[in-house]
């Protein structure tokens, strides 16, 4: 008697079960738990079992590790298959590589509560690495977590570029509150979903019910509020709902990719309200923070990656934390796959070639950025740096900016000269002067290194 053809899902489930049984060690079974969630849309096409993955390295790695096992599992289940093929899917390539675990924001879903989205299990304070780029935001978030609705940080508005840890920090507040006060209701929701609900309520004449639902929330975590910018017609009502929440001393935390004042198409009344509590920025992490994040992630995943490789990543991947995690994952995958090949700098360089190229295009420092950071560090104005005045208090920062522009950008002396309104010879002379001085003045050396870190670069680049 012939078995009925199993549906795609149940076939895949039985493959997973069987492969697991075929794996002899705990380590291999654990590895499988990490890798199988990266496989998508498994299906039979003629006699070939096709599985989609998001990276070329996974195509190679999974073929080597699992093709034979999956084939055996299928054949032993009576399927007519003679090949298992992994293919690269463009859609998957853009998605996150690591399978994420989630926790519901509401301990027990209750009737009449607003819908809330699941939070990442690992987005906790313990897993958040502190550094100068995020210390304000971290401090404010901790204060709010310890006393939701009871600090003056209401609303707490966290802003900064993408991938810098806003969602992580916001969800950390949620976890902290849920762990200590399971009775409190926490609502984590993206502004997009919030607005959809809101518009639904408006259209269905259910505003009253909508407001009532949110009144029951003790902690509202509203992610990516830049989404409401430009949606003017609903801002009036949004403003009222928001006000009534704050009036009830409900804690509201918001994130956005820009500061409140830069939310385009947002009424001043609303942005003004956003700023009445506490506004904190998360900036790009310095070299040291990037390295600390890498070490913590490697440790958390129990990956033994040599220090020089972690430094290499921290030095070359600077744009944001998500990109840093992506680079680490790539290296970890390689190590998992090649137990017998030692991971060298050359290999890391090869593995990360594309990401490093991409970084260059997004994060080449501008001379302007350097001047601004130097001016800030020395407590002088940008105009002073650009002026012709030759007092020592201005000459040093000006020359430091020239020196750093030569060291940290790919621009020519001519181009740098143009930005300073000086000749290329002046820039050359200025940079040389600082080079000579830092060799003998340790104080100056320290200052220059600090500024380099603030610019998100590794001070070791100065000696190259
Ligand atoms: P954003 O919301 O700002 O776009 P996310 O909060 O999603 O960024 O962070 C992107 C990734 O980087 C997440 O996996 C997060 O855990 C990680 N991350 C960001 N900042 C830190 C940090 N300071 N310490 C540890 N991990 C971080
Ligand atoms: Mg986010």
Question: Brief overview, please?
Answer:
With 464 residues, the chain is α/β, with parallel strands linked by helices. It has helices spanning 8-22, 26-35, 56-76, 90-93, 135-146, 166-180, 191-203, 207-215, 235-247, 268-274, 287-300, 307-316, 321-337, 345-351, 353-362, 367-378, 382-386, 392-408, 413-420, 424-440, 442-454, and strands at 40-45, 48-53, 83-88, 102-103, 119-120, 156-159, 186-190, 219-223, 251-256, 278-281. The strands form 3 sheets. Strands 7-8-9-6-10 form a 5-stranded parallel beta sheet.
Query: Which runs of at least 5 residues are low in confidence (pLDDT < 50)?
Result: none
Q: Using the CA coordinates, give the radius of gyration.
A: 27 Å
Provide the β-strand percentage band.
5-15%
User: Number of helix segments?
Assistant: 21
Ions, cofactors and other bound molecules: adenosine-5'-diphosphate, magnesium ion
Q: What order do the strands of the largest sheet run in, or round the barrel if closed?
A: 7-8-9-6-10
Give the biggest sheet.
Answer: 5 strands, parallel
Structural class: alpha/beta
The mean pLDDT is 87
- Global morphology: flat
- Total number of β-strand segments? 10
Query: How much helical structure, as a percent, in the residues?
Result: 40-55%
What distance separates the N and C termini?
Answer: 74 Å
């Amino acid at each position: 008697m012939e078995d009925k053809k199993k549906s795609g899902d149940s076939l895949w489930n039985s493959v997973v079960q069987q492969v697991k049984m075929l794996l002899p060690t705990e380590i291999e079974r654990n590895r499988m738990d990490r890798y199988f969630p990266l496989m998508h849309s498994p299906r039979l096409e003629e006699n070939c079992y096709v599985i989609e993955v998001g990276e070329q390295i996974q195509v190679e790695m999974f073929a080597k590790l699992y093709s034979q096992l999956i084939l055996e599992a299928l054949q032993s289940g009576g399927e007519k298959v003679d090949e298992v093929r992994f293919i690269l899917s463009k859609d998957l390539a853009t998605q996150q590589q690591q399978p994420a675990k989630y926790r519901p924001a509401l301990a027990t879903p209750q009737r009449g509560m607003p819908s809330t989205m699941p939070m990442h299990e690992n987005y906790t304070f313990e897993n958040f690495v502190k550094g100068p780029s995020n210390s304000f935001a971290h401090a404010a978030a901790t204060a709010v977590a310890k006393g939701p609705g009871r600090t003056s940080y209401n609303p707490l508005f966290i802003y900064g570029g993408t991938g810098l840890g806003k969602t992580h920090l916001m969800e950390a507040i949620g976890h902290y509150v849920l762990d200590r006060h399971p009775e409190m209701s926490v609502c984590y929701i993206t502004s997009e979903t919030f607005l959809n609900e809101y518009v639904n309520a408006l259209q269905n004449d259910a505003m009253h019910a909508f407001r009532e639902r949110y009144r029951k929330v003790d902690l509202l975590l509203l992610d990516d509020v830049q989404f409401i910018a430009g949606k003017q017609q609903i801002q009036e009502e949004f403003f009222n709902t928001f006000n009534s929440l704050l009036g009830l001393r409900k804690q509201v935390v918001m994130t956005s990719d820009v500061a409140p004042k830069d939310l385009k198409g947002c009424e001043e009344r609303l942005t003004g309200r956003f700023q009445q509590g506490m506004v904190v920025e998360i900036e790009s992490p310095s070299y040291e923070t990037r390295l600390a994040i890498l070490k913590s992630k490697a440790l958390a995943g129990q990956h033994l990656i040599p220090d020089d490789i972690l430094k290499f990543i921290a030095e070359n991947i600077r744009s944001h934390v998500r990109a840093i995690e992506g680079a680490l994952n790539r290296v970890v995958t390689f190590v998992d796959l090649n137990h017998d090949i030692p991971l060298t700098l050359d290999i890391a360089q090869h593995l990360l070639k594309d990401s490093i190229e991409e970084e260059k295009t997004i994060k080449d420092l501008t001379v302007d950025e350097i001047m601004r950071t130097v001016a800030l560090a020395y407590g002088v104005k940008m105009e002073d740096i650009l002026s012709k005045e030759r007092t020592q208090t201005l000459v040093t920062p000006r020359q430091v900016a020239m020196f750093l522009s030569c060291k940290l950008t790919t621009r020519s002396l001519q181009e740098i000269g143009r930005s300073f309104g000086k000749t290329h010879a002046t820039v050359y002379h200025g940079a040389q002067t600082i080079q000579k001085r830092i060799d003998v003045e340790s104080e100056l050396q320290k200052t220059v290194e600090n500024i380099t870190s603030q610019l998100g670069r590794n001070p070791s680049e100065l000696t190259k």
